[in-house]
Design brief:
By secondary structure, this protein is mainly alpha-helical. It has four helices and no strands.
């Protein structure tokens, strides 16, 4: 029973990614901007990120640290968008081969 539930959840997640991947990449990047705004209010692991940056770069000022964190989140969202987009691309590549 648990296996059926897990498979169902996996299919639901896959189809959500699949339909998102059908959206043109330019619109997905605009979605990235919306997600960035939402992320301003709900930071993912912000305290750990701050702590690690302070350890790695003890001489950085607070403004530089915040800019680095902003860039890290931007890069994270770009990776997420590219993973979503690759759902369709991999299917196309596999169907041609």
């Amino acid at each position: 029973m648990c296996n059926i539930i897990n498979r169902t959840i996996a299919y639901i997640i896959y189809f959500k990614f699949y339909f998102l991947s059908l959206i043109p990449i330019s619109l997905l990047y605009q979605l990235h901007i919306i997600i960035s705004i939402v992320n301003h209010f709900f930071k993912y692991r912000i305290t750990i990120l701050h702590k690690n940056i302070k350890i790695a770069f003890p001489n950085k000022k607070n403004k530089e640290t915040l800019e680095l964190i902003k860039n890290i989140y931007h890069h994270l969202y770009v990776i997420i968008i590219e993973v979503i987009k690759s759902t369709v691309l991999m299917k196309r590549i596999l169907s041609k081969g």
